[in-house]
Amino acid sequence: MSPRSHEIDVITNLIKDCFKKYSKLPKTSTEFYKVGKILGRGAFGKVHLGLHRLTRKLVAIKSLMKKHKDQDNEKRKMEHEIGILKPLRHPSLVKILETFEDNDNLLMVTELCPGGDLLNHVRKRRKLNEGQAKYIFKQIL
Fold this sequence. Notes:
Elements (H helix, E strand, L loop, with lengths): L2 H20 L10 E10 L2 E8 L5 E8 L5 H15 L10 E6 L3 E7 L6 H8 L4 H11 L1
Antiparallel strand pairs: 1-2, 2-3, 3-5, 4-5
């Protein structure tokens, strides 16, 4: 059995066992994802490249360590972000695919935006001409 087939087999069996025992899907865990390189560091966590093991879809996984100094404050910020973004569906906004936690981290799985964020886009160009700025601000509004 190839490593890919074994990977799918393990997760499929986990899902089947959970359905047999509880008649519902298992809670999402890090076993469903391959976590890759760090894409960036945010105000309250790291963002990693991730690969969903079953669908082979690339995602961004934002994590906040639970033992962080200001954990309660940071956790509230992350919950606030999730509360705002989860119900929104728009082509210009990042979609939250799912959220879960493990022993050490709170995790938020979002769609991957391979072009990077707006701040880095502007920093690379140092200045935006009026046409570029209008285009970006029109999208934001």
